[in-house]
Amino acid sequence: MPFLTIASGGLPDNGVIHLAASSLVKDLTTPFRVIPRSIAISLGVLIWIVVLSIWSAVTYSGAIREMFLPTPGHVLTTTLTMGANGTLWEHTASSLQVVVLGFVISSIFAIPIGLMMGTYRVIQAFFDPLVNFIRYLPVTAFVPLFILWIGIDIKQRVALIIFATFFQQLVMLADAARSVPRDLVNAAYTLGTRRTETVFHIILPATLPQVIDILRVTMGWAWTYVVVAELVAARSGLGYISLKAVRGFQVDVIFMAIAMIGILGLLTDQIFRLLRRYVAPWAL
Amino acid sequence: MLMAATDQKSADISVDRVTLRYGKGEGSVLALSDISLHVERNEFCVIVGPSGCGKSSLLYLIAGLEDRTGGDIRVGNRTIVEPGPDRGMVFQAYTLFPWLTVSQNVEYGPKRKGIPAAQRKEIVDYYLAEIGLAKFASHYPLQLSGGMKQRVAIARAMANDPEVLLMDEPFGALDSQTRHTMQKLLLRVWEHSKKTVLFVTHDIDEAILLADRVLVMSGRPGVIKKEIVVDFPRPRSVDIALEPDFIARKREILELLRHDEDDEH
After folding, report:
1. Would you call B153 and A187 a contact, using CB atoms and an 8 Å cutoff?
2. Which end of chain A has fewer CB atoms within 10 angstroms, the N or the C?
3. Touching check for B156 and chain A: CB below 8 Å?
4. Cis ω on the peptide bond leading into residue B221 (within 30° of 0)?
5. Domain map (residue ranges) of chain A
6. Which CATH number fits domain A77-279: 1.10.3720.10, 1.10.730.10, 3.40.50.720, 3.30.530.20?
7. Which of A191, A206, A280 is the closest to B160 by Cβ?
8. Nearest residue, CB atoms, A205 vs list B88, B99, B142
9. Superfamily assignment of B13-97+165-263 in CATH?
C-alpha cells in the first residue's frame, strides 16, 4: 500500500499501521464481511453529499434552468417559509391522516382474514380467484370510480388507500400463515391446543415478525398511493399542493412535498422496525 | 420429591388391524396394511424400520394427527379420533414455540390445563433440572443448540403429564455425539416416571439400548415383522452396547431388515 506507507513515514511503528490499514482494505473488499460501523455510516452520509454536490453544481452553474430544477437553496427556503407559516404542516397532517386511516383499517381486516386464508384451504379456495384478479388492477384507474361512488371528501381518499393496500396484504399474510412448520402446529395439538384455536393461538404468534414486516412494506406502498389519491378533487395534502405547484411551475414546492413524503415513509419504516424488535424480540 | 413413578398417569396403546391409504383409487398408496401392536402400560417400546416404512405415519395416527383408513386405535380405553394432551409427542424437527422462552414452552401444557402458577413453577423447575437447562429458563429457542432444543421438547411433552409419550426419531437431526448424550438423558428422565413410550427410529443401536421391546417393521405397506424382547436390567447403562447379547439382538434385527431390502429387489 504505497500511499499509506508514505503517510506514515515519520511515525515509530510503520509496520503496525501498514498492517492495520491493509487489513481494513481487506475487510472492505471481502464479500459479505461485516465492515466497521463508523465507515458504514460515513458512506451513507457521503452519498447524500455527492447527490447534493451534483445537484448544486448543475443548478447554481446554470446548466439546468431554474424552471426545471430549482437550486437546493431555493427548496430549503421554500420549505422553511411554508414550515413557518404552517402550510407545510397542514398539508402533511392531511396526507398523514389519509394514509394512517386507510392503512390501519386495511390492516385490521387483512390480518385475521389473511391468516385464516393461509390456514384453511377452503377459505383460500373461495377468495383466491377474486383476490388474485383485483390485485393486478391499476389503482389509479379507480380514482374517478371512487369519486363517483364515494365523493370527493376524505372518505374517498381513505378508500383508495385501503383498496391499494388490502389485497396485497391478504396474499402476503396468507403466505406467512402457510409458512408455519406443520409439526409446530402438531406439537401444539399434542399439548392440548384445540384445532379451532389454531389461527389465533399458534399461527398469529408464530408469524408475528413476518406480519410486522408485511405491515412495514405495505405501509411503504400506501405512501406512494397518497399522491394518487389526492391528485383529483382534494383540498389539502402533499399531493394536492404538488399538483397546484405544477400549474405555477413551482418545482421547489413539488420537491419539498416529495421529500416530505419520503421522510415520512422512512419514519414509519423505522417505527415498524423498532416495533418488530420490541414485540418480537425472539425473532432473528 | 415432586414426582414418584406411581404418581404419574400412564396408559396402554392398542393398535388393532389398522390400515392407512393415501389417496383414492388407481393412484392411491397403501402405507400401512392391517398393522396391529400393543404397548403395555409403563413399557418403553421401540419401532425400528427403514425410512419410508410407515413407522412415523403410525405414530401420527396414534397421536390423532392423521386419520386412519381402517382399524381401531385405543389409548387407555378410549378410541382415538383427534389429537389431545393425553398423547404427548416429540418430533424430529425442532418444534419449540419460538415466541416463548424455555420455561414458557415447558409450562405451555400445564398452563392450558389451568394449573395454578405456583404449581406450574414447581413442574417447570423440576423438568428444567432434569434436563440440565435450569440456567436457560429465560432463553428463547433461537439461542439454543439443536440438542438443547430437543431436551426442552422432551421436557415440554413430559411436563404435561400425558398418558403416553410418542417420539418420532427425536434424535435423528442431531450429530452422533449429541445423540448418545440425549439417549442417556432420556433413559434417566424416563426412569423417574416410567410413562408408556412408543419410540420410532431407524437406528438399531438406539432401539436396543432404550427399549423393553423392539418391534421390527418393514414397509410398503408397513407391517410388524417381528417382536424382540430386550431384557437388559434397568436402569440401563450405555455399556450394554458392547455385550454379546446386545450384538446378538443387533444381528437379528439387521438380518430382518436386510431380508426386507432383498425382498424388494
Report:
1. yes
2. C
3. yes
4. yes
5. 2-69, 77-279
6. 1.10.3720.10
7. A191
8. B99
9. P-loop containing nucleotide triphosphate hydrolases (3.40.50.300)
Decide if A274 touches B, using CB distance below 8 A.
Answer: no
Query: B172 — contact with chain A (CB < 8 Å)?
Result: no
A186/B89 touch (CB, cutoff 8 Å), yes or no: yes
Grid look-up 500500500 returns A1
pTM for the full model?
A: 0.86
Going residue by residue through chain B, which has 265 residues, state the pLDDT in tens, using 9 for 90 and above.
Answer: 455 444 568 999 999 999 999 888 888 889 999 999 999 999 999 999 988 889 999 999 999 999 999 999 999 989 999 999 999 999 999 999 999 999 999 999 999 999 999 999 999 999 999 999 999 999 999 999 999 999 999 999 999 999 999 999 999 999 999 999 999 999 999 999 899 999 999 999 999 999 999 999 987 888 999 999 999 998 998 889 999 999 999 999 999 988 766 665 4
> What residues have CB less than 8 Å from B111, skipping those under 6 apart?
B120
Q: Is A183 on the interface with B (CB under 8 A)?
A: yes
Q: Is B63 on the interface with A (CB under 8 A)?
A: yes
Q: Report how far residue B41's alpha carbon sits from residue B194's, in angstroms, rounded to the nearest whole number.
A: 9
H/E element, A266: helix A251-279
Return the domain boundaries, chain B: 13-97+165-263
One-letter amino acid of B157: A
- Beta-strand relationship, B70-75 and B44-48: unpaired
